[in-house]
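Reviewer comment 2.1 asked that we show a complete input and output for one of the modelled complexes. We chose the acetoacetyl-coenzyme A case, as it is the one discussed in the main text.
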Amino acid sequence: MTELLTQVVSLVTHGDIMVATVDNPPVNALSHSVRAGLRDAISALESSDAVRALILVCDGKTFFAGADIREFGKPMREPLLGEVIARLDACTKPIVAAIHGTALGGGLEVALACSYRVAVASARFGLPEVKLGILPGAGGSLRLPRLIGVETALTMISEGKHIGAAEAAHNGLVDAIVESDLTDGALGFARRIIDAGGGIRRASELPIPSFDPALFGAARASLRKRFRGYVAPQKAVDLVEMAVAIPFAEASEREYETCRELLGSPQSKALRHLFAAEREALKIDGLSADAAPRDIRKVAVVGPGTMGRGIAACYLDAGLSVVLIGRSDESLGKAKGAIARIYESALKRGSLSAEEMESRLSRLTLTQFYDDLADVDLAVEAVTEQHDVKAEVFRKLDAALRDDAIIVTNTSFLDIEELASASRRPWNVAGMHFFNPAHVMKLVENVRASHSAPDVLATITALARRLGKTPVMVGRSEGFVANRMLSKRTREAQFLLEEGASPAQIDRVLSGFGFPIGPFALADLAGMDIMAAARAARRPRMSDREKSCNIVDRLVAAGRLGQKTGAGYYRYDEKRMASPDPGTDEILEAHRRDRGIAPREISDDEILERCLYAMINEAAKILEEGAAARPGDIDVIWTSGFGFPPYLGGPMFHADQIGIRTIKEALDRYSALVGREYFQPAPLIERLAAERKGFYG
Ligand code: CAA
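Response of the prediction step:
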């Protein structure tokens, strides 16, 4: 007979073994009703003389995915997770965690406090708290090192790295892999334990395995480089170092305190905001639940250039078939070679097997003929960024594709509305704007045109997810969201340069803020010719000052194309190490002389404010125009696409922390200094400042 302990936890007794089943969709987070149900299940086990073991299993897609993030920041109702875990640990009869899906955070901590863990082969395990700016608070950093060794545990805790069931079985985290039905397998396992007279096992009582104490220093140094600016990874090392040095009970209290402290930290708030914003971004405005994604199996990519190759690789990686279409055997051959090189380097790094590489390349076909596209489900237009060239490709695709096939354009700046309306199938047209290198960059700006059908929007969202990308739906707007905001930062960086700042100073300020690389080092990496071409494309829409601020063109004229020519804004040695270059100073001085600009000392604060607030002001206009549906979408775009530090939550979240009034006052100041056409506060900023509100209310 099934007994309902709480709304989400039920109990069934099979002879002398009880099974507690949790069903708390979507991810069996450890909400209050789950914690209460688990406590009651342990009580039922302890109070029954007939029952000798308990199995914990979850319905739905996963084992507990952790604490309920929606409860963070609110008063917690008892029993707290720590209490449930202490009860599991103290229980005098064996408890078996039966795991499928992902056992994460508090979910893994529950499993660690059980005597035994069995799992299906596809299960994954992790303590990803660090990604939310916190650390395990219920014994994870104490039990995991005891079970699997200090070094592996430290990596999992400080990087939030997941491991699979095979590795977990190998390192002792999992006791058995279940091939059959999970509950049946767990019952069989528990039966064998009982019959063999096996009793309880407590990870809390295991000795600390031996380890090299130098590993903490090495981890700190490596994490400092890889997670620059993040607080929690460094604290994770302190925590594990402490956890293995002092008695369990004392360490347990200190672990809880550390977690509580971090939960209130600005970084954790920002990272938790982003976790929610990324999921919110998948909910497309005006899309009803019946807009089901279409089935996409075969894709055409038109244009074998840098973007086309990267995009083709994304689809191949996700298991789809790709027809790459180009204008000559030579360009197609080069593209295939470049894609093969991506896979060869993955093979060398050990992240791809030889069979998988072969399978991916076997799904790639090359053609010069649109007639070969009759059976594709979706075509990606990724040709040169010129309206006439793209319009011609659209015409050819229209003629060659099935009527129900979708066309997506990868345009960065052109008007998708115009391209769509010239097509025979405007309802089957949308944008999927990838970023270079497409097979690496997570962000995809999906673009809705006014006629895009709801199921086309659902399809491109699902497709981008299938490619492992972070899709955000945006609307019509020149440069969409990411590039439109970036162009304002680029403009200010150039103006600051001609007013007297150096590339090194501006790069230092912006990378000190948290961007992975400064704008000038990035320009040198991308190539000054690329920057000059982007500038030429924007020229018709530039102000007089922007046109005259032609430092990029001067660098190109001097043959300084960036890293590839050994000099750009910086000079590069054979190891591509950058150093400031007197040659650049001369070019800048000549530019200032020609423009009649007397250089001045510019403070770091001014640099940061002008670069950042110009972007935020533009974002406010984007929101007002509806080109982004909500501020969270902009935060996701900038953190996943352009390196805005996630621990600051994205430009909109960060703006609220600064205060919109403060930003408005600075915009007024820079309007007077630089010009109203550049810094006039957006009406939304004026309104929010007057109402003393933020983008998030
Ligand atoms: N609490 C509450 N809701 C959660 C959640 C959690 N821990 N994890 C996921 N969800 C919600 C999501 O917000 C989403 O909700 P909507 O449908 O309303 O948008 C829904 O569950 C599905 O999530 P995903 O879209 O992410 O689904 P997925 O299948 O792609 O991934 C997952 C599933 C791997 C579990 C992923 O959701 C995930 O990584 N979750 C976070 C896990 C985590 O960080 N756990 C640690 C929490 S902190 C902790 O546990 C320590 C402590 O005690 C303080």
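Residues 3-263 form a domain with the 2-enoyl-CoA Hydratase; Chain A, domain 1 fold (CATH 3.90.226.10). We note this here for comparison with the apo prediction described in Section 3.2.
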